[in-house]
Design goal:
Radius of gyration: 15 Å
Helix content: 55-70%
Number of strands: 0
Number of domains: 1
């Protein structure tokens, strides 16, 4: 139990502190997270737990970028983390969508609030993402706007995947 609480503390603090930006990479690390990262979702509510896990995934993506990983690998790691912690908490990812395939409003709001905890890491990652995707340098204005809207972009990406649109 102490180990599970410690793991949770470390992962949750990574959203609000720059000190810890470790990114799981090996299958056994995802398996361990699935087994050990269990939140009291019956207390918080499934939507709040889902929002927390989406935010962890979004922040993990930028942490991966900042560690020098390419976009595809960072996305795979973030997706693996999300799947593992959702599975470990017995939440089906489909439950985060409404009938139209959009993220439920209560989840959307909380994700955007929580993604702000990794604002500094996002701001650092945006120029790297732009450079990898376009070969161009990001302008300071673009970095500011992209950082501010990162949570919404992450959610729209999930919705696009759900609706079968190409990202």
């Amino acid at each position: 139990m102490k180990r599970s609480l410690f793991t949770l503390l470390i992962l949750c603090s990574s959203l609000s502190m720059n000190a810890l930006k470790a990114v799981p990479e090996k299958p056994e690390q995802f398996d361990q997270l699935e087994k050990e990262l269990s939140l009291p979702c019956s207390e918080f509510g499934e939507e709040s737990c889902t929002a927390r896990f989406i935010a962890m995934s979004a922040c993990t993506f930028v942490f991966g970028i900042n560690q020098g990983k390419p976009i595809g690998e960072s996305m795979d790691i973030a997706d693996g983390l999300f799947v593992a912690i959702m599975r470990g908490n017995k939440i089906k990812p489909i439950s985060m969508f409404n009938e139209e395939g959009d993220i439920k409003p209560e989840i959307r709001k909380e994700v955007k609030d929580r993604v702000r905890f990794c604002k500094d890491a996002t701001e650092e990652a945006i120029p790297k993402i732009v450079s990898e995707k376009t070969g161009e340098e990001a302008t300071p204005e673009f970095i500011t706007v992209a950082t501010r809207s990162y949570g919404e972009w992450w959610l729209r990406t999930l919705e696009a995947l759900r609706k079968g649109r190409k990202i």
